[in-house]
Amino acid sequence: MTHRFDQQLLDEPGHLIRRAHQLAVATFHEVHGRQVTPVQYAVLRALEASPGIDQVTLAEQVALDTSTTADIATRLEAKGWIVRELLARRQRSLRLTPEGQAVLADMLPRVDPMYERLLATLSPDEQSEFVRLLAKFAGVGPDSCKGKPED
Fold first, then answer.
1. What pLDDT is attached to residue 151?
2. Which regions in the chain score pLDDT beneath 50?
3. Distance CA 33, CA 65 (A)
């Protein structure tokens, strides 16, 4: 029995986005190892930029639901990379520890080369356009329609 690959699948945005995500995650792990996940990296970057941020705001900044963010914060706290302090109304304030700062500092010099490698099949103009369109699609860029009324 022969299976024919459905070429139409290659025209489906969902399939292409999933494949792009696979490439991004694989490249991340090849460059940084498996000690930190891409989502944990995003959390560390957000905490570096906003020390003491509460967990709900952190979840919004890194585009995760609050329960997933709480799970990740628990894992990062267990690794000794963040501390969580209880605030009013059961919220938690999060900060990087010196160890968490060191982990992030070790990763940062490899971030730009990682993205250069990931986007190497595109010309510099295509890279800029690709990132602009991804930001627009994700609702986070200056061209974003997120939160704007529909016509």
1. 44
2. 149, 151
3. 25
AA letter at 48: E
How far, in Å, CA of 44 to CA of 48, rounded? Answer: 6
The Cα–Cα gap between 125 and 113 comes to 17
pLDDT for the residue 11: 84
Select from 18, 26, 10 the least CA-distant residue to 117. 26
Per-residue pLDDT, 2 = 58
- pTM for the full predicted model: 0.85
Give the DSSP H/E element, type plus range, for residue 19.
Answer: helix 13-32
User: What 3-state class would DSSP assign to 96?
Assistant: strand
Q: Are strands 82-86 and 92-96 parallel, antiparallel or unpaired?
A: antiparallel
Backbone conformation region of residue 139, classed left if phi is above 0, alpha if psi is from -120 to 50, else beta: left
